[in-house]
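Hey all, sorry for the wall of text incoming. These are the four entities for the joint prediction.
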Amino acid sequence: MNNKKIRVAIIGLGRLGAIHAKNVAEQNNDFDLIAVCAAEEQLKWAKTQLGISATYTDYRKMIDEEQLDAVFIVGPTALHPEMTIYALNAGLHVFCEKPLGVDLQSVNEMVQTIHSHPKQIFQSGFMRRFDSSYLYAKKMVENGEIGKIIYIRGYGIDPLSGIESFTKFATASDSGGIFLDMNIHDIDLVRWFTGHEPVRTWALANNIAAPELEKINEYETGVAQLEMDDGVIATLVGGRHAAHGYQVELEIMGSNGWIRIGEHPEKNLVTLFTNKGVVRPVVQDFVERFSQAFIDEIKAFAANIKNKTQPEATVEDGLKALKIAKACQKSVDTNQIVDIKL
Amino acid sequence: MNNKKIRVAIIGLGRLGAIHAKNVAEQNNDFDLIAVCAAEEQLKWAKTQLGISATYTDYRKMIDEEQLDAVFIVGPTALHPEMTIYALNAGLHVFCEKPLGVDLQSVNEMVQTIHSHPKQIFQSGFMRRFDSSYLYAKKMVENGEIGKIIYIRGYGIDPLSGIESFTKFATASDSGGIFLDMNIHDIDLVRWFTGHEPVRTWALANNIAAPELEKINEYETGVAQLEMDDGVIATLVGGRHAAHGYQVELEIMGSNGWIRIGEHPEKNLVTLFTNKGVVRPVVQDFVERFSQAFIDEIKAFAANIKNKTQPEATVEDGLKALKIAKACQKSVDTNQIVDIKL
Amino acid sequence: MNNKKIRVAIIGLGRLGAIHAKNVAEQNNDFDLIAVCAAEEQLKWAKTQLGISATYTDYRKMIDEEQLDAVFIVGPTALHPEMTIYALNAGLHVFCEKPLGVDLQSVNEMVQTIHSHPKQIFQSGFMRRFDSSYLYAKKMVENGEIGKIIYIRGYGIDPLSGIESFTKFATASDSGGIFLDMNIHDIDLVRWFTGHEPVRTWALANNIAAPELEKINEYETGVAQLEMDDGVIATLVGGRHAAHGYQVELEIMGSNGWIRIGEHPEKNLVTLFTNKGVVRPVVQDFVERFSQAFIDEIKAFAANIKNKTQPEATVEDGLKALKIAKACQKSVDTNQIVDIKL
Amino acid sequence: MNNKKIRVAIIGLGRLGAIHAKNVAEQNNDFDLIAVCAAEEQLKWAKTQLGISATYTDYRKMIDEEQLDAVFIVGPTALHPEMTIYALNAGLHVFCEKPLGVDLQSVNEMVQTIHSHPKQIFQSGFMRRFDSSYLYAKKMVENGEIGKIIYIRGYGIDPLSGIESFTKFATASDSGGIFLDMNIHDIDLVRWFTGHEPVRTWALANNIAAPELEKINEYETGVAQLEMDDGVIATLVGGRHAAHGYQVELEIMGSNGWIRIGEHPEKNLVTLFTNKGVVRPVVQDFVERFSQAFIDEIKAFAANIKNKTQPEATVEDGLKALKIAKACQKSVDTNQIVDIKL
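and here's what came out:
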């Protein structure tokens, strides 16, 4: 375990980038965080808080100048493909956040480059696969404890408190739409748990909770029903209106039992008995909900590099999730059932 | 309160008929149970357990011979229309179980007859509208406590333990299909809570949990996605595979809060800490889940008769729920989105 | 079942008296409510709401003049003994609320009178023994499903919202002290579940939540630890400060599992997801918590009369519970361990 | 943060020692794990799993020969004092597991030595103070959100599955008794939350669940009632019989609300709906329940060393908890109320 450390850099110090940076620096003994690349105003934080002196605003320069083994790509989604391609061509292992990108053409190039560097690790940020609750459920399903899967329901619903900042973000950038933005992980979970692919979808969306989103061509809530290739049925709900917090919930109905993960997104083991009733405090965002999974996925990345193993979730998994999210969006836009081609 | 009692008879002493009979006889002071009409083998029970001497196997004869004010119709669904028509024409108030019938033609006749007897009470068995949990939720919604409704999800899932008896029943009779059999109440709840009508549906169904149902043209699980006329989205899940018990669940997502009713169908206030984990025992069937609602709906029927008020849930509500269930079924059968005409 | 009805009267139309009156009149077919005796201002309610014309302010007069089979005694606790004695001597069956009385001398007389009328039913209002949650737990314990009882914990805690009215009441009357007022049912449950008697207790009490109670020699919270004759240990907590509602909770630790009853006193099957967190609404008082048990205990009283069977909970059970509550109070008053003589 | 690492060794590689060793080596960037001292058979694990080459069976030799800044003492409780004294005299910072020791004389020496080295950090393993649930509750209490504390209840109950190994352990060693072994942390929490000291206790104990413990002078379950110096009342329950898992629960009743921590010791966010009912899987032992707290307490130890700050929980806190546990035990042994001298 106390072998030579993996020399690593991070591109992007936004909310999630900062989490990865802190986890690499403080919660993990596998990596040496050598350099960061981010917007000028974020670099100060890296210097003072993490003690990183090698800071860049140009990721190419950083990759060229530093002696790196691997890189974490947490920049704008649209840039994931070019950053990944540059890093792979420079011989680095790549951890790239989700989703792979926004337009399929550049993502396809990215995928080809990944395939042409089979000895380098490429891992994408499907952190939910490292969450202890999903892992517990996965094992139960694999052990046949709930029989055959019949129906699966995934919710990805952001707290209402974030709607303003989302509106700003979506005004400036392409969010990719409600399903890409909110349900990409749910789509991955549906595929991971069932081991099957969706073939058709009918999706609906509305802005009842946030009429202001109409102007920027966004939906607050989207609901997609999917038919899987083996007859399993799925429902995805994406939204940004949860008054109580951050609701990421997955229900798996089996022929001999059901599992719900995150039914109540409890923050801790505290129960309150107050004039509000009997209350469980709940998590407020993905940072809180998946704090440990973010730590565990980078441990797994280090292990993959050391053991020369590719991660279970491949780039194809990322590509398919992207295509499925886009098919749901297309169904909303066309008001029709959409066949899903993977 | 201690006025003259309402003279009443019951047609049908199956599972639900027996519940109504016992409730009328033992849990209510408004009615005198004068006579029953049922299959020969069930009459003995009425004599010995309820002390009813006036027993019939022909409902027409009973209505003709006894001096009745009202009748409870709990016979086979297909006979609901003719029984209702006969009773109304004989001047009786009618409480008729759900659904109104199976074929639309006879139901339409039934509806016309009801309309031509406006002074007689006609009440159908939407007992969920009398359940304290739904009433509590309804009041919250009406008070605006969860804002505007965005999405609504209704589950009607029978216990796995009943699948054999269902198979026998459905082999012999027309169940009406998964949505009519399992979700008619959920459809009523969606309409009741939203105050709006569905306009389109896409439904899917499978027999993963009960392949034997293929032979008798039934589905074990059905899932319907509905678009409401105001943009609200709904999901209905009907099934017969719940390993834990009887799951009737309704979720109402509002722009300022959510309500779930029956998320865990707790049987009582007991929590167990055993080698199985921390366990809440749950209700096993509709009899247990809605025992109090069955008592309360007949109290309301008596009050309607005494006060000459028609029930909130009208025959049109019953008719529309029937049409919506049939539209869902048609979507499964045709594999297409179906427009709903009400 | 449709036999001759039991002619019954009620003495006392306070909060609980009114509940019994309504249940007798509306939720039960066994009794004819013939007459009521109460304070003048309460009689109007009985006339208009229940249609009772035979109303009295003198219970002796009512018992003498009406042709009664049985009587419900829901008057002031201090009068329970004399009322019971008078009714028994008049040949009536008696249902008497808890506790039996406040001073042991009159209660002892009452007990002797009960013993000298063995053919008349005497039932006291241990309604918890009719609550479905306790019955479910009792059966589990009897079936050995949690092994041998090790420890038992009972909470009887009133809502904070009632503290003002309690203060008024306790200023005017003798509440009997925190343990008699709040834990008499818990004491009965400890005895009922374990089948054993407490032999010693050490009790503490404080007024941290309600310093104003000092002036009237009352305690807001009391905690008693009891040693049972077989080594089982018990803790009783009585209080009047619950911000969330009415917490009546019983925990039974067994050598092979635990049971908690009323851990969260859920009002219904509703779960709320709001900006307060994930919330279960809870019951607010004993009326709400035990509404069904109040109905069921009077059904059992009718059945006992018809079947000439004495209730499971005897007058000795009532007497012992009273003595135990007084021993706990004495421990607080003397600041010492108290030996319990039953 | 990326300063020079703290050179550290660990004494003891039992269950908890191995956890600390792994956490130091893998979950933390503050320490360099230089050496370990343990029984011969445990050293192999340290070599192969942690890559530690400097291994010892004599802790004095290790402290003398290695260039250490700090040491983790996780050896047998009885040796905590002499190990601490040796390490402090050698100039090291000390993290010592709970409890401080078993006999008061050697603990008093230990305390004196700690006081005579005020510039060296001494931290004891009150890891619960680092658990996010307790921290959340502590903040609520400090913010006055539940008003004034009235009553506090702490459970420390080990899983039934561990009773055999406990029996072996307690046959060979002095466990210190049920309260010292199971409730030392609960005692600390009572003091931490209330900010007050207990003045008297009456404790009871039994072996109903494990009669075999009689032979070795141990109790399976102990219950202590405590009177605090400000009138607050507390109940402690220690046991080793939990069929469902590891129940560490704390209830804090306040004059304006209650908090329960660990009411149901949920393992994760999974809810199961199976033929067992609705089930929450639960944690099985302290390793699982406090895994994050063990990580966080050593981070805090590192921060204390770097910042030259003594931990919030002082050695006096450890000493008082020890004395209180012993007073509870004495009450069981003498069958009397015991005054607590701190």
